[in-house]
Amino acid sequence: MRHWVRKQWENVGPGGRRLRLGLLSLLGVVLAALGLDAAFPLPPVPPASPVVLAADGSVLHAYLSPDQKWRLPAALRDITPTLRQALVAKEDRWFYWHPGINPAALLKAAGNNVFGNKRRTGASTITMQVARLLEPKERTVAGKLQEMLRALQLEAHYSKDEILQLYLNLVPYGSNVEGVKSAALLYYGQPPHYLSLAQTVTLTIVPNNPSRLTPGRHNAALLAARNRWLRRLGEQGVFPAKDIENALQEPLLAQRRPAPQLAPHISRRLVQARNQANRQAPPSLQENRRKALARGAGGVRSTLVRGKQAKAEALTRNYVRRLAPLGITQSAVLVVNNRTRAVEAYVGSADFQDAFHQGQVDGIRAVRSPGSTLKPFLYALAVDRGLVTPKRVLPDVPTNFGSYRPENFDKRCNGEVTLERALAYSLNIPAVHVLEQLGVGTFTSQLSRAGFRTVGRQAPQLGLSTILGGCGASLEELVGLYAALANGGRYQPLRFTAATSATNRPAPPSLLERGAGGVRLVSEPAAYLITDILSQLVRPDLPVGYENSLRLPRIAWKTGTSYGRRDAWSIGYNRHYTVGVWLGNFGGQGAAALTGTDVATPLLFDLFNDLSYNDGGEWFAPPAGLDFRLICGVSGQVPGPHCPDQVMDYFLPGLSDTRRCEHQQEVLVSADGQLSYCRVCQPEMGYRRVLYPNFSPEVLAFKAAQGLPHTVRPPHNPACALVRADDAPDQAPRILSPTPNAEYVLDARDSQQLQLRCAAANDVRQVYWYANDQFVRAAAPTEAVFIRPAAGVLKISCADDHGRNTNVQVLVERL
Fold first, then answer.
1. Are 204 and 87 in contact (CB under 8 A)?
2. What architecture (CATH level 2) is domain 304-368+473-622?
């Protein structure tokens, strides 16, 4: 082999051998350079300050870097033509033509330093300055040679724009401020691309002597240096003379300002999420992110809109200040764009800096009792199951659901109410009735599909109290649920970070539009019916002037108040936005004035008036699959033969209940009206047909207890020897007190008694009470009976005058 190579070399002429020798030498140099590059890699870029950006790229919140510097990463768009021209003309005119080292400048600097009387110079290019910023060295010949080698290495790894960007991210501006973006925000309160020519030139001067030209501390010296450089740049023709003249007239108003501190809660949340993702990422992805930071792409771009965020924070802070005398110290607000599901304002507390009232707690994610805010979703599910329609009548009377006895917020009952009234006035008892029909498991499973994490964990232990706030939910979860109603019943998770392209710019709107994805929770007709009911509530802020009310946004909204008045909620939505408001105390203390209607709703409408004022009143249109029908005005069911009063109501064809109304029953009574007959004992003549109300036992007992006028059918013919065919077991008396399976503790030294009450059918004239199978006494169906039971297990029985019987068991203790 060596013989063949020597022969081939000898067969080539002298010129060819020189060419090959040169190529081999060049290859050796390249290999040596690659080896040195691998052996001595570039020093790591100093860590940038964590930054959270608004949707438009402006800085919302900034943190100190791990080495306690304000080093905000500047993106490519921050390097404006003005900044680029000023910096290159001042620092390195041949930046775009040399390979990182300017030989001509080096020779000139060497001549000046050795033979001249001028100030000693180093002829550093911008690339060499970046090398020095990455790896500080003493100003020696050896240090300068190392800078030059590093400059060549930088030029091999980065483009000219990226080197310029690195310089602008690392250049010092005095104190702990580094980078042009940090200086622009901390000294001028504006990002670099918003600065004037005079301000831009000022920022290119400070790094030459940051200790003596610090903005806000040495403005006089800085102004003189700025004007000197402006004139020089004008003489060089870098900028037009008119622009230079205007810049010279501009005063220098630079002063140290606080770092941007908007949206502190979501900023902390997003930065923590990014740090966790970086720690869990594979090494290759971590390296890509490190390079992205070096190129100034270290910010987390949120979906927040800067103006809306600032306004929401101001409204919340000022509103809570007014409520402080009432013992209410905190609030949280969330604003969501219904079209994109993007969170546009996120206020975790009234004041993040208020440590006394735990201002750093994030009220958006805090799990609290939701009060009545889940009722609209319950009724929407019930509409889809065909259980109810808007004008369906529901019982609103004292009721025992096993061992659970709910009450309305005002402690009053209304007898019977329509669904739309029950929802509009947030009545508790009708909601529990509907949840009992729907099933707690069905309800909680749908909430889990809507992202309710705590409900998903608690589901096996939850009962009927869930609908009144007996579960845990966060404002974030509730707003997501209401946004689903605004989206026709389709749920999609909320978005906190903006979709960005490779250039770190927002993705096109088409990529952010909501599509057909997501989870279908309720049908579009059901969502529309609930929205229609919630939008008919009277606004608390309706002005007197009619012309002003035309410009206010139309809103569907619902309030909620937790047990003990610890949490006040108000959540509303229209076509454009869903807004959620929570008020209370992070310590869990209640307040007498803390209700959703009185406290949370005014802030909700302040926010909506700012977001959607004069938006044209665009509203939801009735969807397909929804129709009208006549229903009985008394029961809300399909009219029967005895329903003269009929009204129109929405319904879902093929889903809504079609059973005929039976709110009145035809009864055969004697001519004097003293007796009623069944089909068995019906006489051949001497009777008449009379319509009587067909109340449920609970409603009948309520009317009797309240003294409300109601008609009761006559007692059944005592001569009838047969059991009536319609005496079904479900017509047996229902024991209202004591509560089944409950434990009663009575004071042995006092004359405390146990109350016995029941609800019976409207044809019952007398009931019979038994305690441990021992007769107590007979009583009217609505009469309360009292006993003094002994300690131990107690069986209570109640029978009516038709022989129907009900039993419950309780435990009695005497202390």
1. yes
2. 3-Layer(aba) Sandwich (3.40)
